[in-house]
Sequence to fold (125 residues):
Amino acid sequence: QVQLVESGGGSVQAGGSLRLSCAAAGYDTSNYYMGWFRQAPGKEREGVAAIDRDGSTFYTNSVKGRFTISKDNAKNTLYLQINSLKPEDTAMYYCAASLWVVATKPLLDTTYNYWGQGTQVTVSS
Fold:
């Protein structure tokens, strides 16, 4: 059974940084696409970053240059480094894991098969 457990969220001031982690159990992070999504109150879930089996990365435009997705296959852990946080980054952040080796839309939630419970990021101005 696949389990994804996020950690690292918190409350920070604008301009601050956070590093989110997603520990995967029952899943091999080296073989498939993984991603980070977020959902703010009253808004749809949004794909913010994804990484493929070879380490190629994908970002939504609003986070390019500020967010960095990475993974440590030896630890079966996915990361999201978030810098220069803005109040509009406030959301619940979710880790997602797919069973796809190739994905045409890595930031689309239907690409993913497994989801974590989320970790809250709150940014104050």
About this structure: The radius of gyration is 13 Å. The first strand starts at residue 3 and ends at 7.
